[in-house]
Amino acid sequence: MFLVLFAGLMSGLTLGLMSMNLVDLEVLAKSGTPKDRKHAAKILSVVKKQHLLLCTLLICNAAAMEALPIFLDGLITAWGAILISVTLILLFGEVRIRL
């Protein structure tokens, strides 16, 4: 379950963080409310290095998706591991169903 949730989290973070506009975050960090300034400054420090952020999120997502069938293969048959891992990754990692 951890690998499925981790892959879903990385997929969601990729979508959320990479869709943020740097200019809007900089404006918010300088002229927003004190709470917004604090949050925007934290996010801006991460989002400024977009290539590093994207590579990190994609590598973590791929590692979780590849580790899931390997882990399940030790517990059930190979076909079962493939079917379960593909289904779970599709539902939680790609479709992002809400719990």
Can you put this structure into words, describing what you see?
The model has no long low-confidence stretch (mean pLDDT 85). The chain has 5 helices and no strands. It has one domain. The chain is elongated and about 55 Å long. It has helices spanning 2-18, 22-31, 34-47, 50-73, 78-94. The chain is mainly α and 99 residues long.
Integer average pLDDT = 85
SS elements, strand count:
0
Distance between the termini: 14 Å
Q: How many distinct folded domains?
A: 1
Strand content: under 5%
Low-confidence stretches: none
Order of helices and strands: HHHHH
How many helix segments?
5
How does the overall form come out from the CA principal axes? elongated
In short:
With 99 residues, this protein is mainly α. The chain is built from 5 helices and no strands. The chain is elongated.
Topology diagram in text:
Blueprint: H1 2-18, H2 22-31, H3 34-47, H4 50-73, H5 78-94
What are the main properties of this structure?
99 residues; mainly alpha; 5 helices; 83% helix
